[in-house]
Amino acid sequence: MDLDLSEEQEMLRTMAKDFLTKECPKTLVRELEEDEKGYSPDLWRKMAELGWMGLVLPEEYSGMGMEYMDLIILLQEMGRNIVPGPFFSTVLLGSMPILWAGTEEQKKDFLSGIAGGESIFTIALYEPNAKYDASGVEIKASAQGDGFVINGSKLFVENAHVADYIICVTRTKEGASSEDGITLFIVDAKSPGIKIEVMPTMADDKLCEVVFDNVSIPRENMLGEMDKGWPIVAKTLEHATMAKCAEMVGGAEAALDMTLDYVKERVQYGRPIGSFQVIQHYCANMWTNVATSRNLLYKVAWDLAEGHPVSKEVSMAKGWINQAYKFVTERAVQCHGAIGLTRDHDIGLYYRRAKAAELAFGDTDFQREMVAQQMGL
């Protein structure tokens, strides 16, 4: 197993870094935090022209046919620049489930639109019960005529307010286990009966409450088999979790680089603060956390891409990187002193996103419980 980047991956990283540095400065990130949409249509169009939305989609669906590890490299650079917008929800949570479980007609209908930047997708999974696993899926989809009717509410739905389609995870029957009886539907976000409201969050990211009130869905919009949708969700969550880890590692790398530059330049008591032992130890621990997180990310993501069973390893990675990203950004704020506590300084952007990213796809306590279960405890 070789975890070094290939020449093509190095080129992708360099291209992404140069593009995002120019097209997504922190001034734009701050503007988009206050923007109602939360993303820049102009930046979205330029990303689509680079082929990023279809990076891992087959060429027959207008994609670039690249590998999952290439997507990890791209998301690492996006995390380094904390790029706002619906890229993650569209590519990881929208296109991949359709690619894995969709009919040929669904793939032709939806994947080319995603690859071209014409369609924005998201997935509606979590509910007010705040459970991360299948037992938390309570929203009902009831058969009615030639289709189904969905009733219930979902929380923390990424970018639902700008989405064209929502993949809704529903319960269509009570099975012997919580995983049995779950069915996925591709729902037009503008369907009658859907109410979407953006929720206030610490990171000013666009997480939404979506209420379904007698929303009619045609049977052909079912994604995968009836009552057997949880394996699709589980596979999606594993890939999305590692993708989120890539974003987090990129953010931690940026926070470390910013801090090292600052402590070398900031003079106190006649010398750079980086010459004081306590700051040196802070930075050494930050570097260790970043390097360990990056190695863990590449190892587990590679195993996942190769099709190896890695449920425990994914939880290990997310649990560790949750803590590492928070540690790095907390120490970064401390090293920056009072200016690090202001919303005007860039380091605060990373600190707030580190806190928010921990909750995505399972917080640290949840991941520890998953690892313990895999250990037979």
Largest sheet: number of strands, sense, barrel closure: 4 strands, mixed
Strand order of the largest sheet: 1-4-5-8
Secondary structure: number of strands: 10
Gross morphology is globular
Summed up:
With 377 residues, the chain is of the alpha+beta class. It contains eleven helices and ten strands. The protein has helices at residues 7-23, 26-34, 41-49, 68-80, 87-101, 104-115, 230-265, 277-305, 311-336, 346-359, 364-374; strands at residues 121-124, 140-144, 147-158, 165-171, 182-188, 194-199, 207-218, 222-223, 267-268, 271-272.
List the helices and strands and how they pair.
Elements: H1 7-23, H2 26-34, H3 41-49, H4 68-80, H5 87-101, H6 104-115, E1 121-124, E2 140-144, E3 147-158, E4 165-171, E5 182-188, E6 194-199, E7 207-218, E8 222-223, H7 230-265, E9 267-268, E10 271-272, H8 277-305, H9 311-336, H10 346-359, H11 364-374
Report on the architecture of this protein.
With 377 residues, the chain is of the alpha+beta class. 51% of the residues lie in helices and 16% in strands. The protein contains eleven helices and ten strands. It has helices at 7-23, 26-34, 41-49, 68-80, 87-101, 104-115, 230-265, 277-305, 311-336, 346-359, 364-374, and strands spanning 121-124, 140-144, 147-158, 165-171, 182-188, 194-199, 207-218, 222-223, 267-268, 271-272. The strands form three sheets. The chain has a four-stranded mixed β-sheet, covered by helices on one side. A four-stranded antiparallel β-sheet has the order 2-3-7-6, with no helix packed on it. Strands 9-10 form a two-stranded antiparallel ribbon. A hairpin with a 7-residue loop joins β6 (194-199) and β7 (207-218). α1 (7-23) runs parallel beside α4 and α9 (311-336) runs antiparallel to α10. It is globular, with a radius of gyration of 21 Å. The protein starts with 6 loop residues before the first helix and ends with a helix.
